[in-house]
Write a structure and sequence with these properties.
With 121 residues, the chain is mainly alpha-helical. The protein has 2 domains: 8-90, Multidrug-efflux Transporter Regulator, Chain: A, Domain 2, CATH 1.10.1660; 92-121. It is built from 5 helices and 3 strands, in the order E-H-H-E-E-H-H-H. It has helices at 22-29, 33-42, 60-75, 80-90, 96-117; strands at 20-21, 49-51, 55-58. The protein has a 3-stranded antiparallel β-sheet. The radius of gyration is 17 Å and the shape is globular.
Length: 121
Amino acid sequence: MMLEPTHNSELPPIPSKRYFTIGEVSELCAVKPHVLRYWEQEFPQLKPVKRRGNRRYYQRMDVEMIRTIRSLLYEQGYTIGGARQRMVQEKEALTPAEVQQLARDCMADLLKAQSLLNPSS
């Protein structure tokens, strides 16, 4: 089932796998495979690993980047050129979701350290 372009928040969660095929990424991001191949040409930072027979294997960061590109183009109304420029500008800045994930990771690490230091609690 393909989602409407403006429903990025309704995309399925990204499974914890190391590599994804173009078909899997197509479903995870609600973007057709030919669009993904086109975006590779337009966005230099999008570089899936290519193996046997030029087959593409995407990593989690690629899937997240594709979702960002999709949001810029389909939800926020950017052109390809505008989205490319925005991706370069935002490269160093963290998104709110990334900040939240970093905070969750830090809290988990702190709780783990606390349980190691105080095994009785």
